[in-house]
Task: structure prediction
Amino acid sequence: MIAANIFVLIMAISVFTSLFLFHGVSDFVVASIEDKVDISVYFNYDTVEDDILDIREEIAEIPEVKAVDYISKEEALESFVERHAEDPTLMDSLAEVGVNPFLASLNIKAFEFGQYAGITSFLENSVFQTKIEKIDYQEREPVIDKVFSLTSTFSNVGIVFSIVLSLVAILVAFNTIRLAIYNFKEEIKIQKLVGASNWFIRGPFLAQGIIAGVFAGLICLVLFGAATWLFDGTMDGIFPGLSIFSLFVSNILWILALQIGVGVLLGVISSVLAVKKHLNV
Result:
């Protein structure tokens, strides 16, 4: 009975552990997407660098602003040349201009997607608005809205997916343990007939539930440690910068607590409910 309980609890615990890791991966993916979204403020060609740096300091004090990066005219030109060095038409056109045509700018990152509109409004009504040539929020707004919608959908789907799989795991564990205890129904009836108390009858099954939960949790820890290590390179190929094994190791105490906690809880509750049916017969 214990071996069967351990096996089914391993499956149930695996679902909860997978959901925990999925949550960590989804947080990483959403953060990576958010990190790629920003708006740029371009300044008039004759605006001196010291003025732009002062403006950067003022913008950095806005609570909604996460980071502000200054890109000089020279850096903008350098970046353009690096990206288009293989395009002779663009390089010839740039040479014909004879001067650096790029504007100095500030790249602004907000903490949340919805804050870009407020930051843009602040810039458009600021005292230094006359020094600003262009704010590209209007151009990037459709992209920002799409990314926001994508990440929101991703999070909502993850929540629904987690609830459904959790319910399935709980039902599978309960039904399997109930079937295992069903084989002992005659023994339970005999114990009731000879005057054994309900807690005396429950005791062995509760102990087995706890033991099965602990062993299942420890086995799952080893299995997931090996699996995340083996597939670590694969995940990095799909999501650059993501290390599923590092995510596992950095949260190993939480994962261990989750696995043993879920295992013991499911083992005990399933045993109590399954035995209760036979005690009431």
About this structure: The chain has a mean pLDDT of 80. Residues 2-33+147-279 form one domain. Residues 184 and 275 are 9 Å apart (CA to CA).
